[in-house]
Specification:
TauD/TfdA-like; TauD-like_sf; alpha+beta; Double-stranded beta-helix; single chain; 10-stranded mixed sheet; 3-stranded antiparallel sheet
Length: about 290
């Protein structure tokens, strides 16, 4: 059997989920020392594979910002409470408490979803950099919407192509299990409800992906009863079956990024009375789903 690591545009690339075609790990690369041409090759690999992992990094905030700008335009955050001082595009996820105050959002992102699905232009990419990692738990799971779509029958695809999802940030924030809060009038004004397709076309190469989400959806437009979300629940369960999912077990220094245009993701819980977890999250601005 051939070595899974191959050379492509000076990068050594190995599959994240062997046999599936989903995701890629770039081996032996130091992001902080890489030149712009190498970073552009990394971005190309990301756009083709849907998810990207680079282990063993030592990255300060400026390094993260340099890399994210090669991917695209950094996206700000709706909630500003836990952005990194001096770096408003870097959001801290952590259960660490300093001087009686949490330094980051805790248990954020638990539940299958795609980031900013409630926006007119959802974020294109999410990037997580591991600063502190529990010895067990806190895995991140990524579901491949392209593989899930391709596994549907042609008749099923044709039916789903006609459906649209009504997303609501207000509904999401006021009903979520963790970090629930009532929005201010300004937040409600700045985050109006939106409608997006259930099947999304990737702008890079036209591949189609199943694109449901949980938490933000209030209606399925195009079916007899828009308020009946049972179809959405069935599709999320289908897409998040083991055959379509990559489970990432974190190590300090991991840089993991995924393409929100063709995936779902969820965080998982850990023993927060025993362990500390600190991650830096960055987003890349996206475009209107089609």
């Amino acid at each position: 059997m051939a070595d899974p690591a191959v050379t492509r545009t000076s990068l050594r690339i190995a599959p994240l989920k062997p046999g599936s075609g989903f995701g890629a790990e770039i081996v032996g690369l130091d992001i902080a020392q890489a030149d712009d041409a190498t970073l552009d090759a990394v971005v190309d690999a990301f756009n083709r594979h849907g998810a990207l992992l680079i282990r063993g990094q030592t990255l300060g905030p400026a390094d993260l910002m340099r890399f994210i700008r090669r991917v695209g335009t950094p996206e700000g955050h709706t909630i500003q409470d836990f952005t990194l001082p001096g770096f408003p595009e870097i959001y801290v996820l952590s259960n660490r408490v300093e001087n009686g105050r949490p330094i980051g959002a805790h248990n954020d992102g638990v539940g299958w979803h795609t980031d900013y699905s409630y926006k007119e232009e959802p974020v294109m990419s999410t990037m997580l950099y591991a600063v502190e990692v529990p010895a067990e738990g806190s895995d991140t799971l990524l579901a491949d919407g392209v593989a899930a779509y391709n596994a549907l029958s042609p008749e099923r695809r044709a039916t789903l192509e006609k459906l649209r999802l009504h997303h609501s940030y207000r509904h999401f924030m006021e009903t979520r299990e963790h970090q629930r809060r009532e929005l201010t009038p300004e937040q409600i004004r700045d985050n109006p409800d939106v409608v997006h397709p259930l099947i999304r076309v990737h702008p890079t190469d036209g591949r189609r992906a199943l694109w449901p989400s949980t938490g933000t959806v209030t209606e399925i437009l195009g079916q007899d009863d828009p308020k009946d979300l049972s179809l959405l629940e069935d599709l999320v369960a289908f897409m998040t079956a083991e055959e379509f999912v990559y489970r990432h077990k974190w190590q300090v220094g991991d840089l993991l990024m995924w393409d929100n245009r063709c995936t779902l993701h969820t965080g998982t819980l850990f023993d927060d009375t025993k362990y500390i977890r600190t991650m830096h999250r960055l987003w890349v601005r996206g475009d209107r789903p089609v």
